[in-house]
Amino acid sequence: MCKEATINPSIKNAPPTRQQKIDLLNARVQTITKKAIQEAKESGEPLALEFVHAQKQMTTLTAGFPVYQLRSALVVYIYAFFSTCLIIRGALMIHPLTTAMCVLTMIVGYDFYSGILHVVFDHPSNISIPILGQPCLEFQWHHAIPFDIVQKDFVDVCGDLNVAVMILTPIYCAMLDLNNGVAMVIGGLKLWMAYFGQFSHKSAHVTYGSTWAKWLQNHGLMISTKEHKAHHKPPHDVDFCLIGVCNPIIDALRTLTNNNRIWVSLFCIWSVFDLVGYVKVVDALAQFLQIS
Ligand SMILES: [Zn+2]
Ligand SMILES: [Zn+2]
Fold it and tell me: Which of 29, 187, 199, 288 shows its CA 20 to 30 Å from the CA of 107?
């Protein structure tokens, strides 16, 4: 485990740096883990997996400490820049109504995907899956430290997606026809919706958010604090979506099956094939409306 996080007294009044905020969160992980170990000893109950892995060193394949990490802000800005270029280039090739259909499809599609992902990442045993384990550990520690998403700088919240974007980008490039305007807009929006989902989640944890964040929450375009609080109540088994419009669908699917293998399979399939499906839907609709 790392050293206890401290802030240099000579710069006590300076706002904490991004690294110091991350260090303080990791120090909190250590404190909570120590308490959990003590409680497990006294009760004789087995220690939950998030505490077991918080005592191990993280590796490329296996989940462990540090749970919170400083992300590359530069990579976030590069991803955002190229996605914006892709959206603009694609939108210039298609009808404005088709662009609007892409946006609508991605709002619903992203929210549904965020629900599947969250169900999978919250499952305790998935911490043991290679590569996938670390984000599962981070998600499960968010239940123990709900203010982590507010304490971190937003660029680090978006940066939590850096590795996933790196893995998925070549897959999408291979599967999508990047001369197709709809594919360009949908491909670019995938990243922006993911960042918007992070913003929606963060806003749900802010007591006094901005006026426009409140407006989006009040109009059902971001998850409300009240709705997201329902997810934070143990056993964390409702309201998984990060925007919230697909929560009834995900909750209904969970009444059909809670089988973890089925949910992990659904997550893998949806991660790879979602955009291809969305492009086909929007292309078909545009053709039907004769606006392509
Ligand atoms: Zn959760
Ligand atoms: Zn939360």
Answer: 288
